[in-house]
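so im writing up the methods section and need the dTDP-4-amino-4,6-dideoxygalactose transaminase record in one place, dumping it here so i stop losing it
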Amino acid sequence: MVANMAEVFTGSFTQQEPIPEDAIDAAVAVMHHGRLHRYNTVQGETAEAALLEQEFAAMVGAQYCLAVASGGYAIATALRAVGVKPGDRVLSNAFTLAPVPGAIAAVGAEPVFVNVTEGLVIDLEDLAGKLDQARVLLLSHMRGHICDMDALMTLCDAAGVTVVEDCAHTMGASWNGVPSGRRGAVGCYSCQTYKHVNAGEGGLLVTDDPEVAARAIMLSGSYMLFDRHVAGPPPETFETIKYDTPNISGRMDNLRAAILRPQLRRLDAQIGKWNARYQVVEDGLRDTPGLTVISRPDAEHFVGSSIQFLLSGWQTPAIKAVLSRCAARGVELKWFGGAEPVGFTSRYDSWRYAKSPVLPASDAVLSSIIDMRVPLTFSLDDCALIARIIRAEVTAVFQQG
Ligand SMILES: Cc1ncc(COP(=O)(O)O)c(C=O)c1O
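--- predicted struct ---
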């Protein structure tokens, strides 16, 4: 179809789908009985939170799972559970969002940022050069881009670096058939409204390590009720840790768990819908002059809940012109090159509590990244229209330049 300058998109980039009816029914049932606290159960009852943990563990093939208050809380808990202490350094991605360095700061540790590649994943060469600076890598699969996990794990295993995976954007994704979050010692997921399942807020943590699981359960605020965790390690695992692991309250409640369980059962179907939309946008953007689409490796099974492209080598005024021209036509794009943090978007040098040297290689990539949400409330026609608008505006500005 020929690009039509009059076309305007009128949908919302922040509107997710409604909660499915069976999830609403499950939530109402919890409200009817009133036992919203996960440890408030009657004889013979398994709490919704415990069932959610059991089902998620089975879904990703993990030994243990813990449901918590948020994705950021899951990450901070994972860092504590693998032994990160105040003053420690933690390797992490230069391209990520604020809750990631925030979780490192919550533990009193300091991030060591690792460069991002033009494929929008952690730069393994830069990582290899920094592995002697920390004992733990908090690997963020930012915007759903998964690095070569086989190569990363080989590097980290050889260096004795423990990997905690931030899977806020990769729930349901995999690398070479292994679910995201299952190569590192711990995988952390978010159930916040803009993620792949929606409980408003919430997080999940998975691991195969019984001690890490036991510490995480204690940290989340289990008091001495850890035997109610059907996806937790056996009670004897807690014997050695229950006296010296603090309760840093951050439990998930049964209401959120009830909303999430039916959504987990639909996750694969939802991923199919996201990826169909992603494909339409990507097809519409491909071969636009001045614009680079991100090529996705065959080993990566991703979830296209957002899309990124690069305007490499563009000057700031030209990028700002694209953003405002697209916004005028109803298309909300985010840019990782802005000097000031805006909305959900910020950069490693915006987090001034976390000292970092300038990373010129990352700056070059970040200054070219354009990011767009793809909510499932968009139809395939919406996605085609959005791509036509972006293509027309990028082309127009590029030709002026
Ligand atoms: C990359 C990334 N990691 C972690 C989180 C934390 O998730 P939550 O909002 O559930 O704390 C987010 C949330 O936006 C995120 O984008």
